[in-house]
């Protein structure tokens, strides 16, 4: 067993929403069980919510696994600083994209100077936290992006530019939401079924505003993925072969399927219990 100072050190940075944090935590547990020193980065807001919900022990960490925080950048007043509510998605997208980079850079510098912990050797950023690649590049370490959506979901976002170029989005007016326009066939979308209709894409394409925050956030993030060292997906090849083939044809980098994470974490937990039982015998 390697000493803690000699372990590879992975810093995991999820987008601060439950559907992103949960699978990233599962990946963190797998890496930790495989011998990595892990730093899991929450936003300060989510860390406070977690402590209020489960107590300080929830973020105490353990040997080789620690929690760290950065601010999400969303302005707060004294009245709502301790609120326990889901944050506004457009605000969360805008402020993480525009304010988190310097905070993560400072955190990585602090981690590299921490006593008793190995230097950072890689960053695993959420697929929609592309600024993680900039911090990793400055540090000279690789950065993999973990897309918590399916491969099909990734390709749906990747086709946003195609939908724009074809004039299919943004919608001309609200009437197109209900007059059958959303049933328009979209047969040329790359990596998607030839039976796709406009309504089958993410609801973010149903905007009438070209400046829509959520649409532009996802368009920006999915197009930044080309800069990653690798893409990680919580899926299997047999389930999404067409979409994965399209991803691998488009992206100039490895695409790894590591799913299903639920099953993998359960296997590791079972293996751990078996080893403990054997040791007791």
From TrEMBL:
GO terms for molecular function: quercetin 3-O-glucosyltransferase activity; quercetin 7-O-glucosyltransferase activity. Residues 11-139 form the Glycosyltransferase N-terminal domain. It comes from the Eukaryota. Belongs to the UDP-glycosyltransferase family. This is Glycosyltransferase N-terminal domain-containing protein. It comes from Triticum turgidum subsp. durum.
């Amino acid at each position: 067993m390697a000493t803690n100072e000699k372990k590879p050190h992975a810093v995991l940075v999820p987008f601060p929403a439950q559907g992103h944090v949960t699978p990233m935590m599962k990946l963190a547990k797998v890496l930790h069980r495989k011998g990595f020193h892990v730093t899991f980065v929450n936003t300060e807001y989510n860390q406070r919510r977690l402590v209020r919900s489960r107590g300080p022990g929830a973020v105490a960490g353990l040997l080789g696994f620690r929690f760290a925080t950065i601010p999400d950048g969303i302005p707060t007043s004294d009245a709502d600083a301790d609120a326990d509510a889901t944050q506004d998605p457009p605000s969360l997208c805008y402020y993480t994209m525009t304010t988190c980079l310097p905070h993560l850079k400072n955190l990585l510098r602090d981690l590299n100077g921490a006593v008793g912990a190995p230097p950072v050797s890689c960053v695993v950023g959420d697929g929609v936290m592309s600024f993680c690649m900039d911090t990793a590049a400055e540090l000279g370490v690789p950065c993999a992006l973990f897309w918590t959506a399916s491969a099909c979901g990734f390709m749906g976002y990747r086709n946003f530019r195609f939908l724009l170029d074809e004039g299919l989005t943004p919608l001309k007016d609200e009437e197109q939401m209900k007059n059958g326009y959303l049933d328009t066939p979209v047969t040329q979308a790359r990596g998607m079924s030839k039976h796709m209709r406009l309504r089958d894409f993410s609801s973010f394409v149903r905007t009438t505003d070209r400046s829509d925050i959520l649409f532009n956030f996802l368009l920006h993030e999915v197009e930044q993925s080309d800069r990653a060292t690798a893409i990680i997906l919580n899926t299997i090849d047999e389930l999404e072969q067409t979409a994965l083939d399209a991803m691998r044809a488009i992206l100039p980098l490895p695409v790894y399927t590591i799913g299903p994470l639920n099953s993998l974490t359960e296997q590791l937990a079972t293996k751990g219990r078996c080893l403990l039982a054997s040791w007791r015998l």
